Amino acid sequence: MIKHIVMFSLKDPANAPKVKALLDSCKDLVAGMHEFEVGIRTEGLEANADVVLVSTFVDKAALDAYQPHPHHQAVVAQIREMAASRHVLDYFC
Q1: pLDDT reported for residue 44
Q2: Number of H helices, E strands in the chain
Q3: What are the φ and ψ backbone dihedral angles of 29, each rounded to 5 degrees?
Q4: What pLDDT is recorded for position 78?
Q5: What pTM was computed for the model?
Q6: Which of 69, 92, 71 shows the shortest CA–CA distance to 22?
Q7: How far apart are the C-alpha atoms of 1 and 57, rounded to whole Å?
Q8: Which residues contact 29 (CB under 8 A, 6 or more apart)?
């Protein structure tokens, strides 16, 4: 299994629900996507980012199929316009 975690800081944090909706639309895009959860900053809780994606893929081939998927790439292009920064960590679990 591979855990794929992406954290975004947004130019305008008010766009967090829109970014969440865009990311949520990527759920179940490819076979081998095991888990897919998107969270947004919660007032009163510690956070260094506005949006986080935590997903799990059964293997590297599944993650490799997800990355170039046309719908995923369209979402990436939209989020790129709203993001101030992006951090990624992929690891075997």
Answers
A1: 97
A2: 3, 4
A3: -65, -35
A4: 98
A5: 0.96
A6: 71
A7: 6
A8: 66, 69, 71, 72
Amino acid at 81: E
Q: Which amino acid, 76?
A: V
> Residue 42 has what DSSP assignment?
-
Sequence-distant (≥ 6) Cβ neighbours of residue 5 within 8 angstroms: 52, 53, 54, 55, 88, 89, 90
Q: What is the mean predicted confidence (pLDDT) over 3-27?
A: 98
Residue 91, amino acid: Y
* Spacing of C-alpha 50 from chain mean position: 12
Tokens representing 73 are 């790439």
- The sign one gets for the Cα dihedral 78, 75, 90, 43 is positive
Greatest C-alpha distance within the chain = 39
For residue 16, the model assigns a pLDDT of: 98
- Residue 3, SS3? strand
What pLDDT digit, counting tens, does each position of 40-89 carry? 999 999 999 999 999 999 999 999 999 999 999 999 999 999 999 999 99
